[in-house]
Structure prediction request, 610 residues.
Amino acid sequence: MLGQILVFGILVGALYGLVALGLSLVFGVTKILNVAHGELVMLGGYASFWAFSQLGLDPYLTIIISFVSLFLIGAFLYRLIFSRTVKLPEETKIKNTLLVAFGLSIILQNLALRFWSADERGITASYLGTAFTVLGIRFPVVRLANLAVAVFFLVALQLFLRKTYTGKAIRATVQNWEAASLMGINIHKVYLISFAIGAALAGVAGTLVAVNYSIQPSMGLTWTLKALIVMVLGGLGSIPGTLVGGLILGVTESTTSYFISSNYREVAGLVLFLLVLIFRPQGLFGVKEG
Amino acid sequence: MNKKRIISFSLLIITIIAMALLPLMIKKDSTINLIILVLLYMSLASSWNILGGYTGQTNLGHAAFFGIGSLTTRLLWIDGFPFFPSFLAGGFVAVALALLIGIPAFKLRGVYFAIGTLALAQILNITVGNIFPEMSFNPAISDYQIVPRYYLFLVLAILTIGTAYFLVNSKWGLGMMAVREGEDAAESLGISALKHKLLALVVSAFFAGLVGGAFAYYHVSYYLNMPFGPEWTFDPMMMAYIGGTGTIIGPIIGSIFFVGLKQLLVWNVGEYHLIIFGTLFILIVLFLPGGLVELWKKAQTYLRKGPNQKKTGTPQIAKT
Prediction:
């Protein structure tokens, strides 16, 4: 039984890691704390739901649609709103982007309510019930796909950051944006691309949420909180850390569901989050600065 | 200057008297309900403003204090306690919660404090929903009267705003603002940041708890975790920002504006007012950090001195 709890926790945790990946990238590069991340996940879910029900695409093929549409939405939102905070000093910037993103989340939530009603929707794949059993432990296909998709995007993002020019420019900006800008790197472009990729990753996570659970306009805050928890657990701005943080959250939730009650699984994650914030603000694996 | 003070003081007295006489003139319950809503938000936004506006600690968990106050009052009152002690108990339990979480929470600075308080309110929201899954009904529904509720909210709004006014104009208030402008600088001048932040939190939580208690008295039936919902933090926060954080009048203007807008747009189905309000909130944070109060001041200077006057006041955020 313990093995089953662990496996379930890890497979759900991979999805949590993916949800946090975009938030962590955006925060690490631009210092924008986008608490409307959960709403971007929601939009990705609706994009996939639309492609699945209207175009009849396979649920996992709709990832392309949610990725591309959220990339564009992210670029648009950055241009329209977040680009205006670039020049602020870091602490003010984080606080102001947090507030602005809250306003944005309320707008997106109510727009979604207006267009798609408050009904819950979900993508029901034909292979939803399929599962393997190895050593008495069930591995549902849909949950295994979480891990595969999360690892795929994590590796792709790492390769992008290490091998391409744009990726290197992003890393240079993280290290020292002033020096990077003196070397001829266009900081605005770097921020724009990072924000758009972060949104696109939220979109992909939205597809998985729609397949694994369900989507509705008010889902944003729950997923934003999960992403924040994972980001803090894994260490702020650390990309491999987000997957580890996601797995920790997933296992914490699944053990809580089993030993206490599934009603308290979110509470367990939040309590863990507060403890880490107070006692290890640099994250579980982060190194203390200075 | 002194003349101006007398004028504003008499205006204030007239407003309070007019508000006190209002239920004698208005017989429509729906209008009184609307004013109650304004008074509720006014008190809640003003209480948020003490910590969030004057002390600079963005509290995203204000709903926790509102919720715990309403929960305490409701449970005691329905259990048979007289209302007034139950109401006060709501405020004191909120203070107890504030003290309990204050010291660990203030180890977190800036944005960590914000997301930490957000997480805390969500923990309480979910837990209370798990413990009390049923809807709470008011047993005394047969003799429900709106007028005593109206006066409770009116007195509470006057008390909250009055306390905020006297607090921020005291030595403690100056300390709170010093902490907001620069924690390290304040500490170096011998101002204990922790003490000032705790005081602001306690006062803010006390009034939020009392507003929660009044809410428990006012609402006939609701889920007990409903007052813990995040909208009880975000709506008052947006009201404070739109009116002008760190001013006494700001949350007052913001709450009237919010309820007015909601009422105007209620004829259309959906939550249009939140879309407009959210947009306005973003614009204010980006371009007009002082809110409508700052806009008003700017307009006044403009009218008095003409357009070619040198810019004064708070520096604007650089546009990109």
Notes: Residues 9 and 15 of chain B are 10 Å apart (CA to CA). The two ends of chain B are 40 Å apart (CA to CA).
